Amino acid sequence: MVKMIHKKKWIPQELYNEFLRNMMLLCVDNIVVIDGKVLLVKRKDEPAKGKWWFPGGRMHKGETIKEASRRIVKEETNLDCMVGSMLSVKETFFREGPDEIPVHSVNLVHVVYPREGQTEIKLDGHSTDYKLIARADYGDMYDPYIIDHLRMIGMDYGGYSCKLPN
């Protein structure tokens, strides 16, 4: 297998907008489990601006799915993680995206665990806040996408604690 080397580089916004108008995105979302709690970040950017979400983002060409998960968690939270099994493959459709362009993405969702000793969370510029939840409280208004995944890992929206294998 030939390993592609990818370098981080940004494409011009106009070209990216053209992609958004005509193609779907391939993304990874990461359910980060820290001491039995799930990490959620509050999104600063569209799509899902202002919502609590899992750390996630677009894959880069030449990167494996697990490499993308590790990179994105590191970039967004400063945590080095071990990537567990894929939990789901889901689509999301957002009416509001960058420059008011609707976004269609296919999301590969993993459960990930910070490496031992990794506890300090430092957010990048794409999130305004974070929280660790052990229960999905009715008072919090989570997107159905988030609720579905919390249920998949055994965190019932009615308030049961999250119990995940190590």
List the helices and strands and how they pair.
Blueprint (H helix, E strand, L loop, with lengths): L12 H10 L2 E10 L2 E7 L8 E2 L2 E3 L6 H13 L3 E14 L8 E12 L12 E7 L10 H9 L14
Parallel strand pairs: 1-6
Antiparallel strand pairs: 1-2, 1-4, 2-3, 2-7, 5-6
Give your account of this protein's structure.
The chain has 166 residues and is α+β, with helices and mostly antiparallel strands. It has one domain (13-134): Nucleoside Triphosphate Pyrophosphohydrolase (Alpha-Beta Complex), CATH 3.90.79.10. It contains 3 helices and 7 strands, in the order H-E-E-E-E-H-E-E-E-H. It has helices spanning 13-22, 65-77, 144-152, and strands at 25-34, 37-43, 52-53, 56-58, 81-94, 103-114, 127-133. Strands 1, 2, 3, 4, 5, 6 and 7 form a 7-stranded mixed β-sheet that branches. The radius of gyration is 16 Å and the shape is globular. Residues 1-6 and 159-166 have low confidence and may be disordered.
Question: What distinguishing features does this structure have?
Answer:
single chain, alpha+beta, Nucleoside Triphosphate Pyrophosphohydrolase, disordered N terminus, disordered C terminus
From the N-terminal CA to the C-terminal CA, the straight-line distance is 31 Å
Q: Which structural class should the secondary elements be placed in?
A: alpha+beta
CATH homologous superfamily title: Nucleoside Triphosphate Pyrophosphohydrolase
Low-confidence spans:
1-6, 159-166
> In total, how many beta strands?
7
Largest sheet: 7 strands, mixed
- Average of the residue pLDDT scores: 86
Shape: globular
CATH fold topology: Nucleoside Triphosphate Pyrophosphohydrolase
Radius of gyration: 16 Å
Number of helical runs?
3
Percent helix, as a range, is: 10-25%
The ordered H/E elements are: HEEEEHEEEH
**Which band does the percent of strand residues land in?**
25-35%
Give the class-level CATH name.
Alpha Beta
What is the CATH architecture term? Alpha-Beta Complex
- Overall domain count: 1
